[in-house]
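A reminder from the course coordinator: this example appears on the midterm review sheet, so study it carefully.

Given structure:
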């Protein structure tokens, strides 16, 4: 008989406090081997059959390959099973200090061996169509990830402000007009000035971070793939914030169905079965 981990119990008071303080935490051994194997099959299915939302985020001359795809939980059964059959709803609700956890979207990120393309330092929330603070993104690799190839976070940056978002490959300001938001600091050139958090990870480990936490990652050297599945979650205070541009990912037609400032109560964003108790 498969032994499942009592995942909500892994969110200790210390981890919850660290998430609120730093905007990023690591939880070890959160998922078991069977769950990771099932998710890996879903990732390979996704790679063989990309959605219309998929994109390559590396240059043609990159010796590796950086691939992304979004919002596939309704088409890929393994993704849906992973999200809805685990206790992840309870875990993220505890981290957010929220009574409920709502699925926002899934995001596949694959860097093949030798990929030079960095994931530049950035915040996620300015790319999205939501407002609020009670949110969390989970980043889960199904391959071992070295500290050098893992996500990095600037501790405390989730407390603001919003920073200028740009395209990853050519640094173009396609969303907010130039000058309307404070520019991103050059973290890479001044690493000693920041508290940078990062963890080497094994399959089953996961990192969690706020959508405003400044983060990035290097390429992937050597012969190791880096297949990671990210899921974004919304808590009680998150509301709809329509934009005048195409968000990443886009939700076509949603502006006609949810008013500005409305809770994200919509079939695209279902409540997960697990909710936090006593938070």
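Designed residues:
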């Amino acid at each position: 008989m498969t032994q499942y981990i009592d995942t909500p119990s892994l969110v200790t008071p210390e981890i919850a406090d660290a998430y609120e303080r730093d905007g990023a935490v690591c939880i070890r051994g959160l998922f078991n081997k069977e769950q990771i194997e099932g998710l890996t099959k879903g990732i390979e299915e996704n790679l063989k059959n990309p959605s219309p939302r998929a994109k390559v985020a590396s240059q043609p001359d990159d010796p590796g390959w950086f691939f992304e795809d979004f919002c596939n939980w309704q088409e890929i059964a393994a993704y849906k099973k992973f999200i809805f059959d685990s206790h992840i709803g309870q875990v993220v609700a505890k981290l957010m200090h929220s009574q409920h956890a709502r699925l926002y979207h899934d995001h596949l990120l694959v860097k093949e061996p030798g990929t030079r393309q960095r994931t530049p330092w950035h915040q996620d929330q300015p790319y999205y169509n939501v407002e609020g603070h009670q949110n969390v993104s989970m980043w889960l690799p199904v391959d071992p990830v070295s500290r050098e190839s893992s996500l990095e976070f600037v501790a405390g940056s989730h407390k603001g402000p919003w920073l200028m978002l740009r395209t990853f490959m050519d640094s173009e300001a396609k969303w907010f007009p130039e000058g309307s938001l404070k520019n991103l600091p050059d973290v890479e050139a001044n690493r000693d000035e920041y508290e940078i958090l990062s963890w080497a990870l094994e399959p089953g480990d996961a990192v969690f971070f706020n959508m405003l936490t400044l983060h990035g990652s290097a390429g992937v050297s050597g012969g190791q793939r880096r297949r990671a599945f990210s899921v974004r979650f919304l808590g009680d205070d998150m509301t709809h914030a329509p934009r005048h541009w195409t968000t990443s990912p886009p939700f076509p037609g949603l502006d006609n169905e949810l008013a500005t400032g409305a809770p994200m109560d919509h079939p695209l964003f279902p409540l997960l079965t697990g909710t936090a108790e006593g938070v």
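The first helix runs from residue 13 to 22. Confidence is low (pLDDT under 50) at residues 1-5, 274-279.
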